[in-house]
Structures are given as structure tokens and as C-alpha cells.
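Sample pair:
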Amino acid sequence: MKYSLSLIGILTAALVAGGCATKKYVRDTAAPVQAKADQVGQQATQNSQQIEDTRNQVKQVDEKAQNGISAAQERAAAADRHAAAADQHAGEALDKANQVAQVADQNTQALQGLTRAVANIDDYKMQTSATVFFSFGRFSLTDDGRKDLDRLAQDAKSDKRFLITVEGYTDTTGSREYNEVLSRKRAEVVVQYMVTKHDIPLYRIHRIGLGQEKPVEEARGRAAQAKNRRVEVRLFSADQVTGGVKAQ
């Protein structure tokens, strides 16, 4: 009986000792594994953070690239608009330059024609004339005055080189200053009628208002004064040469 109890105690002690040894083995073996696992987990966490940081950096770079592309596109569009506007302004400037050049050519031609006319002024001879009368203090044309101007304009249209002189006059009633203004108005209305009604070029007409100067009648009577309220129109032509043959 004592033997059995001793055997049981020995077995029990052995089992206890064996159990303690097993726990220590497990503990010693698992500790490095757990440390390695913790290290791997920490590294994984760091790697995840680095990946997230890298993604954020890539996103920022992409946003900057997109902003740069948008800015470049806006600058290109603005450059295109400026170029189109510059082309339009250049075209308008060219059109204006052409218009100015055309007007300059026309003026040059007219000036050349006038220069030739002045150079050959001695060749101009009076072809016909008309006297247009006006009512007292008025500067509007009468029906008879229009008819006289119509006949003179028809004679002018048959010539290539001609000049028309228009001299306005008044009677002696009123001040000299008033009569000078009135005589110019009478001459002007004759010129306006010739230009608008018969298309006579304005540069072929020379006009002047002489007021009460050069009266045709010196008397003070009503009839004499009526003769002085006039515009004298003369047509000069350079187409007539000796022998009555027109120059070609």
C-alpha cells in the first residue's frame, strides 16, 4: 500500500514538472513569434501610411498638372482671341487705308484737272451767260431764274472743259455788311441748284458775293434797284478753238 502511494506521488510530481516545462517551452517559443508578428504588423501599418502618402502626393501632382493644362488652354484661347481681334483690326485698318487712298486718288485727279485748267486759263472763252433776278430781301429762285439756269446747264453738258462763274449782287438798300451776306446767299442758292439739279461738278464752279458793288443801274428808283438784285452766271469753255471746231 505504501508502495502504491509512493508511485502515485512520483507520477504526480512528474506530471507537474512536465506541465511546467511544457508551458515554459510554449512561452519561450511563442514570444519571438509574437514579437515578429507585432513587427510585421507595425511594418504593414507603416507601409500603408507610406502608400497613402504616396497616393496623396500623386493626387497633388495630378491636380497641379490639370491646373497647368487648364491655364495653358486658357492662355491659348486668349491668344487665339487676341490674334483674331488683331486680324480684324488689321483688316479694318487696311480697308480705311484703301478708302483714304481712293479718296486721295480722286482728289489728285481733280487737282490735276484744275491745274490743267488754270494752266490753260487763257484758252477759256465765255460761251453763254444768264442773269437770275431776286425779290427784295430774298434769296430764293424764281421760276424764270430756274429756266435760265436750266438752259445754261444744258450748254455746259455739251462741253468737256468748262468753268462757271457765279457772282451775287444786291441793291443799295440796307447796310454793306447785310448786303454782302445776302449776295453770298443768292450766289450759293444758284450753285446748289446747278449741282443738285444738273450734276455740275462743284469744283468747276467759282462763286462770290459782291453785295451792292458793280450796280447795273445807278438810279435810286424801284425799277433800277430791281435790276441790281441779281446773280450773274457765266459759262466759259476751252473746247472752242479757232475756226469753231471743238478740240478732241
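Strands lie at 125-133, 162-168, 205-209, 230-237.
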